[in-house]
Amino acid sequence: MKITRQWIIVAVIAAVGVLIVAFTFTALIKQPRSVTAEALLEKTATATPIIPTATPRKITATPKTTTPTVKVVTPTPRPTATPELLENGWYLYHDPDGEFSFEYPKDTFLQAGTRKTDSTKFVEMQFRLPVGGYQGMSIRLIPNPKNLQGMEIIDGLYQKKNKTTPEEVKESYKKIEINGMKGFSVTMRDANTEITIIIPVKGKYFMISPVHSTVAVSVDEQTLKIFYQVIESLKY
């Protein structure tokens, strides 16, 4: 069979067409599949949402400090009166409230005050003597609201210690009078005194004793001499 030129051209064109179709098909297979809008929405819908976490800010409140105003009250000191020097060389002691006064040796160490618990006024004196240990005397002005008299005062002193008055104290009771003031003396053998003089006054009473340190066995004679000179000058 005789193949004409025209058929050859047709065959070539057909072959070229087949090649073009095959190439195009192959390109389409290798091209990545496009994502549809529905698929994109489905993927977005099923994805775990990412919630941004904000780092909390720590706020530290600074407390407002207020410095309190402290009012300092300075107590008014009671002026210490200069002792009055007498012609005999002794000093004259005046109670700050003017209740009593007495004379005492110039070289005596004196300390006075008022006890806050019961308003008892006290004056402690130490005499400068050549004997060893403490030698002096004590003067106390003690409130007496029940106006006790005589041994009632002594009994009350022992009752405060839950004791009864010893018989030897009752037997030592002696009435005395000093500058028109009536009182009594008793022997109360405490640790540092032997003689106690009680002088009742208006709503109070004086309790006066010579005293010595526990080092000394008893009150020195010179101490007793000064003691009686002091109480003889006592005025209320």
Quick recap:
The chain has 236 residues and is α+β, with helices and mostly antiparallel strands. It has five helices and ten strands. It has helices spanning 5-30, 37-46, 151-160, 167-171, 221-232, and strands spanning 84-85, 91-94, 101-104, 109-114, 121-126, 135-143, 174-178, 181-187, 195-201, 204-212.
Q: Tell me the number of strands.
A: 10
First-residue to last-residue Cα separation? 178 Å
Largest pleated sheet: 7 strands, antiparallel
Main β-sheet, spatial strand arrangement:
4-5-6-10-9-8-7
Overall morphology: rod-shaped
Report the C-alpha radius of gyration, rounded: 59 Å
Strand content: 25-35%
What is the CATH topology assignment of the domain at 84-232? Answer: Protein Transport Mog1p, Chain A
| Element order: H for helix, E for strand | HHEEEEEEHHEEEEH
Q: Report the CATH architecture of the domain at 84-232.
A: 3-Layer(aba) Sandwich
The quaternary structure here is: single chain
Structural class: alpha+beta
Mean pLDDT: 78
